[in-house]
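Weekly structure sync, notes
Attendees: PL (lead), two postdocs, one rotation student
Agenda item 3: pending single-chain targets
PL asked that the sequence for the first pending target be pasted directly into the notes so everyone works from the same version. It is reproduced below exactly as submitted, 79 residues in total.
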Amino acid sequence: MIEHLICRQLIAYLEQNGLLPEMQSAYRCGHSTETADLKIICDFLAAANHGEVTLLSLLDLSAAFDTADHYILLDRLYY
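Predicted structure, written out during the meeting:
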């Protein structure tokens, strides 16, 4: 409960003070992965209309922490 309240207050503060990147989709009302996908597609189409070459490179590190030995990681972080 406290974590949720802190998160709401922090996001509100960051948005009010313009500290979040305009196109950041995570943790924002009205934004989602769909919003991010649409932005990428629009950028690709605009570049194609101007005859520009486009390249998209994606890196997924979501499971990287799962492959690390947690005991070794914690030991290294401790020292």
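Discussion points:
- The radius of gyration is 19 Å.
- Residues 40 and 58 are 12 Å apart (CA to CA).
Action: rotation student to compare against the earlier draft before next sync.
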